[in-house]
Amino acid sequence: MELDLIGLPVDAGAGRRGCALGAGALRVAGLEAALAGLGHAVTDRGDLRPLPSDAAHPNPAIHDLRECAGWIAAAHAQDFGDGVPVVLGGDHLMAAGSVPAMAARAARRGRPLHVLWLDAHSDFHDLASTESGNLHGTPAAYFTGQPGFDAFPALPAAVDGGDVTMLGLRSVDPAERARLRAAGVVVHDMRAIDEDGVRAPVAAALDRARAAGADLHVSFDVDFLDPAIAPAVGTTVPGGATFREAHLVMEMLCDSGLVTSLDVAELNPMLDERGRTATLLVDLVASLFGKTVLDRPT
After folding, report:
1. What is the average pLDDT across 21-33?
2. Domain ranges of the chain
3. Beta strands across the sheet bearing 113-118
């Protein structure tokens, strides 16, 4: 594959700074070499920079709105080309930029975009409902075209809520629950994984994308993982995916051949322990792009 590494080092959407260093930490941990070692043509296209913005909103809790809107606009304006973008965050606000850009690219190809959202949180607040003011809690509501985002850049393309599968949720606010149901988002929380395992929901999401002839964007938040194995995130929630569950997800995505773009969000190396979260993420991304223990017939 032709893989393009693109940094989107936003940390204005989070409650604590540090995610701006995440893209650099993944580079230092050897992501490019790991992917090139699998036979891919890897190009590091550097980091995006936010565009100027005069965005405003009456919710006094919101912080850094103009900077957040500038990052979103920068991603929308980026030419992601014909390869497979691997977008390195940055807090999960990055998905407000990357996902609409990928939806627009899919539309130019005459295809819908399906999204696999791997996260402890649904990020389905709007600008009025957020009480923390942390805008990394809003991107999924925004890119599915929910109301309440006049202060954000206009969507180049939206994703239908029914084309979004969320896996691993375990921290969802009451205001978000009703919106998720109304939008038709397919949700598999950690209880569903406990009861049925991780294979069935991932297979179902892949089957839907395949049947629709869709591009598939994977948006991976570090807090999808259990903090015992991935401490470098500012929004830790106990009870996340295990090492093997996460690798199985990535291996299934690789086997499907459907993934056309990837986010890696919320890595905060200021909270890491000797780089072990960054190293784990490099290993997981490598699994998505073909790293195996043994060759297997597919």
Report:
1. 98
2. 2-288
3. 41-47, 2-8, 84-89, 259-265, 215-221, 113-118, 164-169, 186-189
pLDDT 10s digits, 198-234: 999 999 999 999 999 999 999 999 999 999 999 999 9
| Residue reference for tokens 């009451």 | 174
Fold assignment, 2-288: Arginase; Chain A (3.40.800)
Q: How buried is 261 (Cβ within 10 angstroms: 0-12 exposed, 13-18 middle, 19+ buried)?
A: buried
What angle (nearest 5°) sits at the alpha carbon of residue 130, between those of residues 228 and 97? Answer: 75
**pLDDT, tens digit, 9 for 90 and up, residues 259-275:** 999 999 999 999 999 99
Type of residue numbered 246: A
Spot the catalytic one: 40, 57, 76, 136. Answer: 136
d(CA 165, CA 218): 10
Q: What is the pLDDT of residue 295?
A: 63
State yes or no: is 123 an active-site residue.
yes
State pTM to two decimals: 0.97
Q: How far apart are CA 34 and CA 32, in angstroms?
A: 5
User: CB count, 10 Å around CB of 37?
Assistant: 13
Query: Of the listed 40, 57, 121, 247, which one is catalytic?
Result: 121
